[in-house]
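Lab notebook, design round three. We kept the backbone fixed and only want residue identities now. Task for the bench partner: fill in a sequence for the structure below.
Input structure tokens:
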């Protein structure tokens, strides 16, 4: 709303030779607003997906499974913690090794 008021004030003060500039800036602002709306929708979409994964990983039947623990490690990692993926992969790798060892013991 403030942008619109600003643009109207500029248009009122601007000489007619600046009409093209004004229209160009108005189009650019409109394009930016459309881009922001699209980015917000995309953000909300992926946030909802991550939230669904988080809720699934917190269910009593799954919350202590190594895969759920690994997923939560990634979800809850601080941005500065670049090792969260490696730690999660290690958890899954240990699980896979333990399962393979258990299968070979059963043979």
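Proposed sequence:
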């Amino acid at each position: 709303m403030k942008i619109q008021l600003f643009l109207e004030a500029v248009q009122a003060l601007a000489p007619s030779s600046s009409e093209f500039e004004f229209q160009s800036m108005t189009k650019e602002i409109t394009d930016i607003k459309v881009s922001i709306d699209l980015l917000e929708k995309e953000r909300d979409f992926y946030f909802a997906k991550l939230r669904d994964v988080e809720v699934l990983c917190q269910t009593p039947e799954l919350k202590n499974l190594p895969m759920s623990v690994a997923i939560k490690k990634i979800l809850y990692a601080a941005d500065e913690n670049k090792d969260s993926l490696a730690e999660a992969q290690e958890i899954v790798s240990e699980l896979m090794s333990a399962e393979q060892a258990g299968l070979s013991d059963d043979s």
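Keep this in mind before ordering anything: The mean pLDDT is 84.
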